[in-house]
Amino acid sequence: MTALPFHQNPKKPEIVLPAGSCDAHCHVFGPAARFPFAPSRTYTPIDAPKETLFALHRHLGIERSVLVQASCHGTDNRAMLDAIAAAGGRYRGVAMVERDVTEEDLQALHEGGVRGVRFNFVAHLGAPADLAAIRAIVAKVIPLGWHAVVHFDAHRLEELAPFLKTLDLPMVVDHMGRIDASAGVDQPAFRLLLDLMEDERFWVKVCGSERVSRTGPPFHDAARYGKLLVESFPARVLWGTDWPHPNIKKDMPDDGALVDLLQIIAPKPAQLQALLVDNPTRLYWS
Ligand code: 0GY
């Protein structure tokens, strides 16, 4: 199936973001002619090159960013590294690596701006990460001061949580744990996420409203979960656009409107400053 194109004309946000604001979850895809997609991919996105992302960030008032390696590029992190290199220190990355990655490979990624490693347990993205491989990789990235980003379907959290708690590094949960926004704050997956967050190793991204929403734009049903997470764990939350929104099948979000959702998610200036500036600085620029 042909991927839905990202929004071509996002609105100017209603809010002015604080200086140094960081989009801590977005991707670059290709261009495929230069950076081919992985043979193992489960979807083929439309090219989403760095120049388009840089222009979007300028339009939204975003000065820094964290590029997250997506499954369609597998463990070939070159498109991401190319974009980070072009951004002059304002962008960082989260890589995907093979189990047998060497210290030299990791050092090169670190010098290229990578500060974390990502593990996927989302069914539509292919085979789940292997737990023994995760342990092996984690042991190698801890000396670099990296963290892990974990991306899972909500129903997997119960089984995954005990394993994640055995890992001795900071861990960032993608997209509010991909909960179902229609299922209420007492749904088991959200309760488990809150429980996980009581452990100071864990962080959560309060983005992905367009993924967890069941009512559609403007995704207010989802934003209330982000608000609750920001109120409860103000120093361990991150936010991102998720541009160019891989695998969104309908209601492609307007990235300016996603920024506007921050008025619900982090309504107080101090919350916004922590979410967009201070927290990403601690995890990616310290
Ligand atoms: C996201 C979400 C998705 C894709 C990936 O690695 C990926 O391909 O993360 C998705 O399909 O929901 O965070 O970009």
What does it look like?
The protein has 286 residues and is an alpha/beta fold. It has one domain: TIM Barrel (Alpha-Beta Barrel). The protein has helices spanning 50-60, 78-86, 103-111, 131-141, 157-164, 188-197, 209-212, 220-232, 255-260, 262-265, 269-284; strands at residues 22-26, 64-68, 91-95, 114-121, 147-152, 171-173, 202-205, 237-238. Helix 2 links the parallel strand 2 and strand 3. The longest helix is centred in the C-terminal third of the chain and has 16 residues, at 269-284. The radius of gyration is 17 Å and the shape is globular. (1E,3Z)-4-hydroxybuta-1,3-diene-1,2,4-tricarboxylic acid (0GY) binds next to loops.
CATH architecture assignment: Alpha-Beta Barrel
Cα shape:
globular
Output the radius of gyration.
17 Å
The total beta strand count reads 8
Bound ligands:
(1E,3Z)-4-hydroxybuta-1,3-diene-1,2,4-tricarboxylic acid
Compile the SSE list and pairings.
Elements: E1 22-26, H1 50-60, E2 64-68, H2 78-86, E3 91-95, H3 103-111, E4 114-121, H4 131-141, E5 147-152, H5 157-164, E6 171-173, H6 188-197, E7 202-205, H7 209-212, H8 220-232, E8 237-238, H9 255-260, H10 262-265, H11 269-284
The site of (1E,3Z)-4-hydroxybuta-1,3-diene-1,2,4-tricarboxylic acid (0GY) has 12 residues, from loops.
List keywords for this structure.
TIM Barrel; single chain; 286 residues; binds (1E,3Z)-4-hydroxybuta-1,3-diene-1,2,4-tricarboxylic acid; eight-stranded parallel sheet; 13% strand; 35% helix
